[in-house]
Amino acid sequence: MSPxxxxxxxxxxxxxxxxxxxxxxxxxxxxxxxxxxxxPNGAGKSTTIRVLLGLxxxxxxxxxxxxxxxxxxxxxxxxxxxxxxGEVVLWPTLTxxxxxxxxxxxxxxxxxxxxxxxxxRFELDPTKKTRTYSKGNRQKVALVAALAADxxxxxxxxxxxxxDPLMEAVFTQCIREAxxxxxxxxxxxxxxxxxxxxxxxxxxxxxxxxVESGTLDExxxxxxxxxxxxxxxxxxxxxxxxxxHDLAAHDGRVTFSVDAxxxxxxxxxxxxxxxxxxxxxPPSLEDLFLRHYGEELAGAGVQ
Amino acid sequence: xxAAATLVPARAxxxxxxxxxxxxxxxxxxxxxxxxxxxxxxxxxxxxxxASAALETTYPTAADRQARGEVMSNPAAVMLSGxxxxxxxxxxxxxxxxxxxxxxxxxxxxxxVLLTVRHTRADExxxxxxxxxxxxxxxxxxxxxxxxxxxxxxxxxxxxxxxGLAGSGFAGADSLAVGAGIGLTGLVFGSVAxxxxxxxxxxxxxxxxxxxxxxxxxxxxxxxDVLREGGSALSWFSPIAWAQQTRAFVDLRxxxxxxxxxxxxxxxxxxxxxxxxxxxxxxxxxxxxGPAAASARLTGVxxxxxxxxxxxxxxxxxxxxxLGVVYxxxxxxxxxxxxxxxRVAEALExxxxxxxxxxxxxxTIGLYLTLVVAAFAVSSVLRVHGEETAGRAxxxxxxxxxxRRLLGGSLAVTVAAAVLLTVVAGLGTGLAAAxxxxxxxxxxxxxxxxxxxxxxxxxxxxxxxxxxxxxxxRAVLAWAAVAWVVLVGLxxxxxxLPEWVTRLSPFGWLPAVPAEPADPAPLVGxxxxxxxxxxxxxxxxxxxxxxx
Lengths: 303, 548
What we know:
The complex is a heterodimer.
Chain A: E1 7-16, E2 19-29, E3 34-38, H1 45-52, E4 60-65, H2 74-78, E5 81-84, H3 96-107, H4 112-121, H5 135-147, E6 153-157, H6 165-180, E7 184-189, H7 192-198, E8 201-206, E9 209-215, H8 216-221, E10 224-231, E11 244-250, E12 253-259, H9 263-271, E13 275-281, H10 285-299
Parallel strand pairs in A: 3-7, 3-8, 5-6, 6-7
Antiparallel strand pairs in A: 1-2, 1-4, 8-9, 10-12, 10-13, 11-12
Chain B: H1 2-7, H2 11-18, H3 22-32, H4 34-58, H5 62-71, H6 75-79, H7 92-119, H8 121-126, H9 128-133, H10 141-167, H11 172-199, H12 203-227, H13 239-244, H14 255-275, H15 301-340, H16 342-352, H17 357-390, H18 392-398, H19 403-437, H20 441-451, H21 454-470, H22 478-495, H23 499-502, H24 520-543
Helix pairs in contact in B: 3-4, 3-10, 4-7, 4-10, 5-15, 7-10, 7-11, 7-12, 10-11, 11-12, 11-14, 15-17, 15-19, 16-17, 17-19, 17-20, 17-21, 17-22, 19-20, 19-21, 19-24, 21-22, 21-24
């Protein structure tokens, strides 16, 4: 029996007036793992997180957070988690340092050395009023406050939106350290590279519903590998093999994609044609993502 | 060295280039502010003309006006009016110049400060100037456009006031002196703001500094005029005095307005000098770093609410204190005056309860001051709503903060501040009355009159809390509650509204202390009602979704 998941959501439903923001959503964050929470804008990521934080009340379905009820036990549970919103709004007349201390104290005791260390790593000047901060610096305030907290769960809603690449690298390192320290992380994002780098499991949602969920490896099995080869024989026959898609041959060079389950058969057939060069690109989260949202992209005129 | 040469543009072209785009920026500013400007112009000019025209209704006879004139030599009255030209023969025109004009000047000055900063430093702080400056726009263009906008607005106020006064039958030349004085005083403080906007990198600091200069000018003018009727040497240090020293409607002279014009020119020149010496976005005074860590006192939501509201509490506190001192110091003389004006006496009796006129007046003061406190209380309650719509309430609730604590903690600050303001207002009124009359009993009498309506203030705050707790989308309706209690409180008795209507306001249940004994039943009842409203608000806030 594995330990209780940090987050367990089943059939979550939430409507705002006539808009159904969540429509039977499922999400699990296993204890001690980093879970990526993917979806386009408006898919319901932030709404789910706000239900988990007890800011919104679900209409139907169950949500468990660290083994408790996110609505009824909100304060008790919040002592054990830290949250970084996607859009950080601070008190303009407070300095960054004051805001970090305040956010920390609202949860519990604050460790000054940990705060100082994170301020240094994120290169944040805590003596400036938050009104003068850029979006990235406001984000850093929330990140430092959250990462300095001694908590079991980090809930991060698109936390790197305003950060430059150097700061993103610092963030990545901090999340790896959090994981090594045994913390669970729910990381909502639409930056696929970030999720591929950091996450053990991934949940992809669309229009308030979960469309894929599992470990990155499991999800890769759901997608196709892209193969490019130069062969002696005519590769046109490959198109008839099961699991082969989008085959294009030109001057002996062939490109196609193949379902994970059929990869072995196709490689054997390819071998019979006399392969002179071969590259295969493993399926990326991006392919997976694009496959799920392909029709929306097509609608928007993107190939 | 051609490269270096091209960096220094030909001198002839520079003047025009520095102003390039001014016209477009001015049109943009007029377009952005069309509603705001209309409201300011109609508000300032309309109220000035209305208040002037209404004087005849309030003081129909020369005897009424003369009685008023005697009150106006009281130091507190001088602080809030003018140097007192024409008090010996207090005509309607002299009343306009002495009493109405000051309010209009200060309103025009506030408008000019806010507009100037809005179109200079605020644009710069928000980054719009950078966007605009990257176009073919000269370095001086944003400041010039802002000054042109403010100049147009002040000129419009001057014209509207002049036309309105002349149209109401006041002498044309004197009306122009009053109107021009108001407009020029506005422009003086707009120019002050043009300078302060160059000094600091923050819009709030820029307008705050300019408004502090305005407040200082108002106090210097008042103190100078208190020292000597007609103004002492001290008065002349204040630009506000210059506009009043035209002696409009008494013995008109124009040259004091030249002082205002010269000061405007000097300030504008200084602002242009400064704008040429600094980077876009930077101030001449570097921003001071704040504390890197929160003080030990900033422990939770109550401490935070206190910290965020302390400036507002201080501001409202000074306002009710001054108002209390003014009311307190005139109770004695007003009572004498009222004994002679039957209509006002009747009205006062209807508001402040039957009994001696002095008692009715005391109860009326209590009502006025606590209505101000009620307005503060509502603005204070609505802060929680502001935190919610800004998204900061979510940030706090996502930390280990209970919802009832978030709303309840903020409400506790509101209640404590409302009690504090009422006590300050009561003490100010009572002490001033005791000092002016030399009768120590006045302190207790007026303190009681100001403190009695406090439970009704708490009920109004409770209504605002219920809206915030249950119907956040309609939270601004709390201001309708304030409007209702003000309307019923000030005009209900005059309009002879039926009792059940006045009782729809919590103030309608109050005993008119000191005219009537302080019956505890309604006071306890209102306090309990306020507590019940807060309980409903807390329960509602706990159950609902957070809006942002």
